[in-house]
Amino acid sequence: MSIFRYSGLLKSVRGIQHAIYQAATKRIRSLIALIAFFLLGYSTFVVTVFLEIDVSYDLIIVPILFFGACFVLATADITVRIFRELLSANVQLEKMALKDVLTQLPNRRQLESRLNIAIDDAKQSGSIVGLMMLDIDRFKRVNDSYGHRFGDELLVAASGKIIRSIRESAFVARFGGDEFAVIIDDAKSFDEVVEEARNAIRAFTKPVVVRDQEIRLGLTVGVSFCPRDGASVDELIKNADLAMYNAKDRGKNTCAVFSGEMVGAAQQKLQLESELREALVHNEFVLHFQPQMDISREKAFGVEALVRWQKKDGRLCPPMEFIPLAEETGLIVQMDLWALKQACRTGADWHARGMQVRMSVNASAMLLGRENIVKQVLQTLEETSFPASYLTMEITETALLQNIDSAVEVIRQLKNKGVEFSLDDFGTGYSSLSYLRMLPIRALKIDRSFIKDLSVSGQGAETLVQSIIGLAGSLGIGVVAEGVETEEQRDFLKRHGCYRIQGYLYSPPLCQQDAEEWLGNHMDKTLHS
Question: With contact defined as beta carbons under 8 Å apart, do 386 and 420 qualify?
Fold first, then answer.
């Protein structure tokens, strides 16, 4: 092969190398160009050495120099690209670290940073900073009923409602879960901030629409102020939270402003919770039984079993002091199951002695929501040998509506086994004919608040009670009035067709021994209700 042929080949190689070099200098990000340049440079060296071609050294040196230059350029180019991508990723991560992914609102971290700036500004200018903590009422119920995806869409819609209801200058953030926070640093007075909180609450009086479904929620708000209620981020958040929980204790869907007394109340609540847990461990609870009367025959037909907390010093703790807390902490389920078993044991003992008494027990929303509740109830009946046909489980409208589909299924399954159900505190919740028609219940219980007002003129209680009695009759179910304390109330109920009552007119809740004696004097021993 002639020297000219190899010389032409080498020129071609150098031309290709030059083209690759140009590509590299134009920052064409291709490792293929770099690899090709290296292979061609290497081939030039091989051809020169092994074929002993007399060519100038630049054919060898130049490719090596080109290779080095291209390597540096390509490496620098790749490094710049990686740096830019890392910088971009870092910016995105920083944004993600400061924003809530679901609602796209600032998150807790950004809230705390913004609140810290507002506090520093307030210290210098002498202005006030208002912090509102907002919690969506009944969100958990909807989330459990419709699923988490629906719940996420609901949170997005709710966050939009909050933003639209308050001033544009406010800083709105998602604090976590169904809780939001709002910073207002341009208010002239405390009242301005409170009014913003009320605006947000009023916005939730209208339903939130998700997937063409109207969902009715509520909003509970707690408010704290800087510098009055604290001069640090942690203090303001803690105190606004305390105010919010105080508002929840007062009935939800309202606003509370922090005060020093709330700290003591919160500490007392924590202490009570601790004592409540110990009471469950040490079995400090007892059942009292309030007789239920059939006034058409003046005979007892059953009792309602009521949980009482008998503390170590013998003092009975009022139910309203611990039942709401038990519901809030989830301890109510354990209490309900204990009460059910004790009531069935007592009922079985009374039946064995000839007192065919119907036993009514209360069932909380949490109890109805347990996956194995049907199995647990039936197991309790079997263990205690108490007949299912004599057990009535009382549920409130509020508990029923927390997950109506699941509750109806539980009711139907237990109804098929003989257990009866009654709707407690009827008229105080979301009374609706639509769900009453689908419920296989034994009776409606008229709330004591309506009975109390029967003797008060101008309250409309008489019309309301008559309507409930008529409604129950039209649906073919019974009605029981609770809280009857006067003969006037009893006579009114009797005139309008309500013959089953309970209340202090006949007897307060009694301990087991006193209840046995009372029932022995006021019921037919062969009565089967």
Answer: no
Note the residue count of the chain. 529
Which amino acid is located at 103 in the chain? Answer: T
What radius of gyration, in Å, describes the C-alpha atoms of the chain?
38
CATH architecture assigned to 108-259: 2-Layer Sandwich (3.30)
Residue 285 token pair = 């609870």
Q: Are 359 and 420 in contact (CB under 8 A)?
A: no
Tokens of 500: 């089953």
Q: Cα dihedral angle (232, 238, 242, 243), rounded to 10 degrees?
A: 40
325-380 residue pLDDT tens = 898 888 999 999 999 999 999 999 999 988 999 999 999 888 888 889 999 999 99
- Crossing angle for the helix pair 512-522 and 332-352, nearest 10 degrees? 40
Compute the distance between CA of residue 439 and CA of residue 448 in angstroms, rounded to an integer: 22
Beta bridge partners of 209: 214
Whole-number Å distance between alpha carbons of 319 and 309: 8
Q: What is the pLDDT of residue 171?
A: 96
252 Ramachandran zone, left/alpha/beta (phi>0; psi -120 to 50): left
The DSSP bridge pattern shows strands 420-426 and 443-446 to be parallel
User: Which residue, chain included where needed, has tokens 């639509």?
Assistant: 434
Burial zone of 386 (CB within 10 Å; 0-12 exposed, 13-18 middle, 19+ buried):
buried
HSE-up (13 A, CA, CB side) for residue 331: 18
Q: Which of 342, 338, 444 is nearest to 396 (CA)?
A: 444
Helix (H) and strand (E) counts for the chain? 20, 16
Which helix (H) or strand (E) is 86 found in, with range?
helix 58-98
Beta strands in 86-187, from DSSP E residues, in sequence order: 129-137, 171-176, 179-184
Q: Which helix (H) or strand (E) holds 194?
A: helix 190-203
Amino acid of residue 447: D
Question: Which has the closest alpha carbon to 248: 220, 272, 223?
Answer: 220
CA 27 to chain centre: 55
CATH architecture of 280-522: Alpha-Beta Barrel (3.20)
Question: Peptide bond preceding 227: is omega within 30 degrees of 0, i.e. cis?
Answer: yes
Whether 296 contacts 260, CB under 8 Å = no
Q: 306 pairs with which residues across the strands?
A: 288
DSSP structure string for 487-520: HHHHHHHHHTT--EEESTTT---B-HHHHHHHHH
Give per-residue pLDDT as tens, 77-102: 566 666 666 666 565 666 567 798 99
**Cα–Cα distance for residue pair 296/129, rounded to 1 Å:** 64
CB of 247 closer than 8 Å to CB of 298 = no
